């Protein structure tokens, strides 16, 4: 996101914010070279800079933004209405905000996924654990309402079904499903261990045993599970429109 924006709008100033100092000095161009099947290593554009900060703290920027973007904040934000209010305050009149996030509930149209299965139970435990510590686990379906309450207008929402695995026939969805499956499997233990041992008082060995069945279900080619991803963008009214 940061590199694409910086390259596409060289006259803009792009500021990236994260809780941890994970910002790269180099990145791989997301567009694959079809002739060599490789990706080009690029430097971060000169108009892009990063800061380490907590976006739930009071915003103290000296100027306002034309565009504010946030995504993958499920389980990381306690007070979403306040976040949207601050985003509204620091967006220039006529500017835009855009947020992307999940609905954690898995479902299937024709597959073997069922309520009460290990994957469904995992979702329930994670959602309950995050709520117990005051975090919002499923912001996706609520983004539109929060934006409206903050004062934004021209709100548009897109709900995208994200498959888990390579079961879709559509080539693009198959690629998305492969990536979603990979990131889910890679992060499953870390996410589960952190939330279930801290918020739900599970023992580490209990988490490990529970995840055996979750992983087994995820590997079932007939599972055909998917979950929704919400993309919502909105505009701050001009002064004369307010």
Automatic annotation (TrEMBL):
**Which organism is this protein's natural source?**
Talaromyces islandicus (Penicillium islandicum)
Q: Where, by residue number, does the polypeptide cross the bilayer?
A: none
In terms of PANTHER family, this protein maps to:
ABC TRANSMEMBRANE TYPE-1 DOMAIN-CONTAINING PROTEIN-RELATED, METHYLTRANSFERASE
InterPro entries from the entry?
SAM-dependent_MTases_sf (IPR029063)
Report the protein name in the record: S-adenosyl-L-methionine-dependent methyltransferase
* Superkingdom, natural source: Eukaryota
Recorded GO MF terms: methyltransferase activity
> Which Pfam families does this UniProt record tie to the protein?
Methyltransf_23 (PF13489)
């Amino acid at each position: 996101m940061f590199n694409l924006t910086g390259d596409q709008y060289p006259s803009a100033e792009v500021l990236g914010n994260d809780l941890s100092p994970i910002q790269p000095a180099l990145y791989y161009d997301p567009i694959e070279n079809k002739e060599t099947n490789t990706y080009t290593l690029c430097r971060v554009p000169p108009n892009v800079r990063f800061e380490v900060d907590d976006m739930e703290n009071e915003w103290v920027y000296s100027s306002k933004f034309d565009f504010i973007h946030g995504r993958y904040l499920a389980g990381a934000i306690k007070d979403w209405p306040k976040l949207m209010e601050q985003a509204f305050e620091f967006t220039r009149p006529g500017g835009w905000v855009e947020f992307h996030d999940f609905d954690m509930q898995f479902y299937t149209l024709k597959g073997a996924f069922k309520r009460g299965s290990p994957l469904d139970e995992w979702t329930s435990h994670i959602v309950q654990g995050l709520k117990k510590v005051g975090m919002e686990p499923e912001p996706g379906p609520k983004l539109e309402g929060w934006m409206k309450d903050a004062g934004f207008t021209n709100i548009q929402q897109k709900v995208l079904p994200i498959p888990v695995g390579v079961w879709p026939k559509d080539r693009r969805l198959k690629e998305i499903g492969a990536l979603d499956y990979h990131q889910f499997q890679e992060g499953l233990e870390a996410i589960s261990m952190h939330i279930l041992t801290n918020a739900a008082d599970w023992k580490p060995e209990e988490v490990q045993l529970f995840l055996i069945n979750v992983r087994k279900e995820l590997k079932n080619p007939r599972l055909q599970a998917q979950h929704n991803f919400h993309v919502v963008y909105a505009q701050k009214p001009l002064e004369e429109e307010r």
